[in-house]
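Why this split exists: single-chain examples teach little about how molecules sit against one another. For that reason, every record in the complexes split bundles all components of an assembly together and asks for one structure covering all of them. Below is a record exactly as it appears in the raw files.
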Amino acid sequence: MDRVNNLKQALPYIRRHRGKTFVIKLGGRVFEERHALLALAEDITLLHNVGIKVIVVHGGGPQMNELARKLGVPQQVVGGRRVTNDETLDLAKMLFRGKLNVEIVSALREFGTLAVGLSGGDGGLVEATRRPVVQVQESDGSTQEVDFGHVGDVVSVNPHVLHTLTNAGFIPVVCSLASTLTGGILNVNADTIAERIAIAVGADKLFFLTDRSGLLEDAADLDSLVSYCDVADVERMLAAGVIAGGMKPKINAALKALKGGVPRIHVISAFQASSILLEVFTNEGSGTLIVNDKHEVQP
Amino acid sequence: MDRVNNLKQALPYIRRHRGKTFVIKLGGRVFEERHALLALAEDITLLHNVGIKVIVVHGGGPQMNELARKLGVPQQVVGGRRVTNDETLDLAKMLFRGKLNVEIVSALREFGTLAVGLSGGDGGLVEATRRPVVQVQESDGSTQEVDFGHVGDVVSVNPHVLHTLTNAGFIPVVCSLASTLTGGILNVNADTIAERIAIAVGADKLFFLTDRSGLLEDAADLDSLVSYCDVADVERMLAAGVIAGGMKPKINAALKALKGGVPRIHVISAFQASSILLEVFTNEGSGTLIVNDKHEVQP
Amino acid sequence: MDRVNNLKQALPYIRRHRGKTFVIKLGGRVFEERHALLALAEDITLLHNVGIKVIVVHGGGPQMNELARKLGVPQQVVGGRRVTNDETLDLAKMLFRGKLNVEIVSALREFGTLAVGLSGGDGGLVEATRRPVVQVQESDGSTQEVDFGHVGDVVSVNPHVLHTLTNAGFIPVVCSLASTLTGGILNVNADTIAERIAIAVGADKLFFLTDRSGLLEDAADLDSLVSYCDVADVERMLAAGVIAGGMKPKINAALKALKGGVPRIHVISAFQASSILLEVFTNEGSGTLIVNDKHEVQP
Amino acid sequence: MDRVNNLKQALPYIRRHRGKTFVIKLGGRVFEERHALLALAEDITLLHNVGIKVIVVHGGGPQMNELARKLGVPQQVVGGRRVTNDETLDLAKMLFRGKLNVEIVSALREFGTLAVGLSGGDGGLVEATRRPVVQVQESDGSTQEVDFGHVGDVVSVNPHVLHTLTNAGFIPVVCSLASTLTGGILNVNADTIAERIAIAVGADKLFFLTDRSGLLEDAADLDSLVSYCDVADVERMLAAGVIAGGMKPKINAALKALKGGVPRIHVISAFQASSILLEVFTNEGSGTLIVNDKHEVQP
Amino acid sequence: MDRVNNLKQALPYIRRHRGKTFVIKLGGRVFEERHALLALAEDITLLHNVGIKVIVVHGGGPQMNELARKLGVPQQVVGGRRVTNDETLDLAKMLFRGKLNVEIVSALREFGTLAVGLSGGDGGLVEATRRPVVQVQESDGSTQEVDFGHVGDVVSVNPHVLHTLTNAGFIPVVCSLASTLTGGILNVNADTIAERIAIAVGADKLFFLTDRSGLLEDAADLDSLVSYCDVADVERMLAAGVIAGGMKPKINAALKALKGGVPRIHVISAFQASSILLEVFTNEGSGTLIVNDKHEVQP
Amino acid sequence: MDRVNNLKQALPYIRRHRGKTFVIKLGGRVFEERHALLALAEDITLLHNVGIKVIVVHGGGPQMNELARKLGVPQQVVGGRRVTNDETLDLAKMLFRGKLNVEIVSALREFGTLAVGLSGGDGGLVEATRRPVVQVQESDGSTQEVDFGHVGDVVSVNPHVLHTLTNAGFIPVVCSLASTLTGGILNVNADTIAERIAIAVGADKLFFLTDRSGLLEDAADLDSLVSYCDVADVERMLAAGVIAGGMKPKINAALKALKGGVPRIHVISAFQASSILLEVFTNEGSGTLIVNDKHEVQP
């Protein structure tokens, strides 16, 4: 009876979201706990079954570090971006596309949901160009040229393969590799791919699943969660240095997605049980909802 | 959080029923309590929003008696079937099609669901022929000819208008009037219309909403509910006289629907809160489930 | 042979109208004569069978008065608009939706044409809001507040259910009830509904079937029929007081429909044999054709 | 008013034939009178506009004789079939496809109807093989080998191009040339092409327009018209020699079409005003209707 | 192996042209050599089979002269345009539509390709009006009125029948006759029809097959072929009188097509083996490619 | 000019194969030479561009051995089948799905062709069950239980995701991993997957690309190539022990595919330049064609 009452309380939310598209960016750490991945797969299956079109995007930074360490492949990171030589690119393909992507598809299958794993190179989905060599200033004031190797900047997203798959009832699961026009594979930031895909498909929501429960006013105080804010708030927090570390690129991607027409960005925990469902099916939510302007009625 | 947990427990049921068609026969008494009607509308809206195609069928016997009494139109009932002269047919149109049907459509609208009211005469949905004059044996042994007037026997159901409306996202709400090939309107038993429509559309479930919580082994003992039974059980109960009164025509319609290919019939309460949802989204259910053969694995 | 010659003379008219949409507003009195209703049904069937999409709209004022009188329900009319309390609303539903609407559908069925009866509350077709309380000036100079009760003003028309039905080969027959967003039923002027539907579906013609043969220059002289006029003519006639009584709201609706893009309004007799067909298939017509500007070539 | 009454009398016929396919075989002599051709084009336009799919088939024997005579090309006919050498085949192409076919398309255009002229070689419509050399017995008892040259026997009809055109709203007009699989053009009997096309498209009616008003019991008595008959009647008339001359191949084609599933064959006059329309829109008809078995209810 | 290597070299060209539309205007002289026509049919079949939509347009001037001479019908040409009296129009229909059009369709059939022959009068494809009487200045300075008779100027092209046929997999073959709105047939310049059709269907290439290998800088020097030029070049050549004779109307049509949005015009030989394929599948080409502006990157 | 002539010679082959489906199984060694992989991608692109639907299937045995050796993961092979423990399964995912599959998709992209990489676990494509523990007889006569671990036997193929992608213009590239109904990943023989997919999609041809040029009568004599044979021949060769080693499972898969309705199996070299194209576009071919019965006309 509780179940039925709760279903009925969920009804207005189901009605609001049916037929909409959600892009969900999984953070790398969710792969460390099979339990967390399965919980996510169940949540996504539920969204799928009440008529929401879901597209999953993922990277795999932490796993990459671990695999490189295990195999003795030294990794160099400059300005938060991994320098990707041939050997590292091979590892990225094998890890992102071969292992993590397959694990998400499998976890969804465990709940009876048919997904199709993709990289940005499949179906011409994400076109990128090699990042130009950049001048990086050293701490001693000298500058150094850095060639990031097989690192790409996104040029365009062609969502045809996504529409083809979602219209046929499949959930696309996209890993953070892109392709040049001539078939070269490039390592691309997963937050950026999620943002660009969300814009290209006209998503209604873009979720970033992170290690935190959302944006915090005070990084040291987990109770300082910001439930609801807008671009002005976020820019103020960025200026104040409240947003830092791995959250920063996510928030920058979020701002671009808002600008690109995605009306709602959700920053939530990858580990809190059912954080996505709480965010979608309750008013309170579980993390941070960012909109363009909180003083306007949201569409 | 409870809501979300309950949603997750409902997930296997949602997955099982998506895309299926349910026919729901409302008993006349549900119109007496606006509260009960709204509760039903909410339940139906939920089924609709998780992707189930719902078709509602209703009669209005009790309201008919009351209206006839208020307007001083004498009613004659022979063998459980209302003799329908011109004046009574006018009342039936006005009550079933004009008042009750509109009330169901309105109640669904209150939950944001778009329904379209129909009689069996709309879109050529239910074709009937006038019931022949019958010989009825009197208690004194004499026989009497009874002409039921504008009472019809169903000849065929053409579900085209139902598919047209459900495919366009509308819920059809059908009242128990039928049409002859030449446009005559006939009063037809609503249980029969529900059964014939369920067969014609290939429904997966046919619900009879009644004043009882389901079939009772002992009519005097409300705790003697039969949760699960099959045709053999029902025939045994009919032979034993356990099923009687208004339940009998429903059960006869149920048996015909089972024979016609509808795999599951549910006899449930029109008044118990969320009886439909309990029946659909929990294993325990709320009333009686009748299948062809309970020893076989159900499809 | 005459038949065939006449068919051939009708050919240019058939070619002109195939694939077009006509909205036909039936006046209440046509229900008083079964003969007249059947004649109309035959005419509509003919239009339907030469490829014209027909939508029928009807009210039922005269029948309402009679039914109220018979049942002893007092009726109050202010400024030509019926004050609609709960009891009167129930009568309206029963009469418009239950009796008259069913009769039109049946009459069409008699000619083999499948129609679907609708109220403005079905399929979200006509959304209305309750008319605000108004100040009415009495003859003695005092003012009085009038609450029209369940009387609605049309907010919008969503033609989706009409297109769904006409594309599937059904003729929609719409009675003059509308719905609020929350499922309330309101009594709405049928001329207004006809006008708004004609605009919403992009009708090519809107017919008003009336007790007169069309607009008369001199109300007392039935031979003073105006065959062809435009908005300027009509406004002149309104100013001169030539158009009065029940014709006035029809003409106001006609003017709004012309302004809303319906190129031709026909005011014709509901009782003259085949008045619609004469209007459609002959140059002389049978009543009054109103266009935006008779000096311009009509589209 | 007559027009409208006649339209109404035509209504049951329009309803019966909407959506059906008629194949109309024009006899060659209709081209001799522009007036007759235009009258036919008007009749066909009317059928087209009440929703009947029309396919026209024509030959051009009489015109062929005249053209050959004018150009001094000797013609040889054996057993009713023209021996077709290279020069005669060129004349056939120029006359049938170039002149007569264009004239029918133009006549239809004059009534606003868009037709597309075809030969059996267009779109792979009619595949034929060259007729084998045959032994013909001379009057003196000797036999002679006759090579008919570019005369074809129909192998198969592929109606794809006909469906493509009729579904797009065009009327196909087919002249009596066919193609071999390797592109050779052959002269084929137009009655046979009409019969084979009628079978291939599942036509409801096949019309032969002839110089007579239909089948006559007594060739000398124009009043001896047979209005309605069946295969048994026709076979009896053939045995009795009542059917002779150019009527014989038509009737043989008619019998094959009936056997191939075309339920009704009409033999009517090409010159009587509106003979097609009389046949379609009146019970009396104008010529001869042939069915499989007149004692059975016709489908 | 050569075949396979050459296929692979053709691959980039196949990829570039798949799904595009080519209009190919055949010059009249190609009909004089069955060998040349078959070679063209093979080339067109190849284009069709690698996924290019081909539309063929043809006239038949030289054959017309010959036929008229043979039949003793005097021909008058004023300013390059044939005066077309009734008798000449009949010849034009018989020759263009009856003989030449059928020959192209047959030649394509010989390679297994299904084509459908059309005139501009079929399916309302090309609407024309009769050319007005013009004043022509005589060499002696006097002027003379010339009535070209059944000669038409193109008013509009309705490509519906072309799209219908190409979408169904057929190749339309259009001869240079057009129709007035009332069914009159007019003789229209084939270069103009090709140009107007190319614009109407949004063709990517328009080919003119001529007796020369392309545009020549010096008409006397067959080696002075211009491989690649633009509108400015062509206008310079016209001004210099380099382009003359039958090439002039083609080039004027080419300029109009370029202006109308056809990006590439090819003037090539009708007789050089595989000139079309060389032009499409090699960089060198075989004749003259004309673009709007050779200094811009071509789309 | 050679190119064009060769294109024309290829035309009959192009016509024969347009719209057909080819399944191409790549052998693992083709990944060792980037040059060979690119050549294959070019060939596949050509097939794709002349309208053939291509599905690529691949394994990666040799690369697996090398990767395992490099990472020091011991590999056990029993009866030709790799025992797949957890660590080896991870390697298989990373290598097959992560590296090799991505390389094929990239190589195709280099020729402008959009492919989508899949494992049998994507979109529910290949369902498998874990291979049961088997008794293996040792050379000393003792038996040993072998648990192959994550090795699967194919239960069924659901081609929905393949049709979805090919209909949208993408080439599916499938690696040899399958999924259980509950999301477990299993290592499955690639020849078997190719065979089962070819049957499921109704392929017209199934290619096995191998290290040899085809089937050899005498393994030691590379000139003893069998160009054309049937099932009877193959069974004779199997009985005679002529077919051995890695060729044996391919041939067994080929026999099953033939039995399952795939009419033509091609065993060709992965390294001979353009072996696929030679096989498809020439009569001589390049390897071995196997049919059901070489004495029957092939469909």
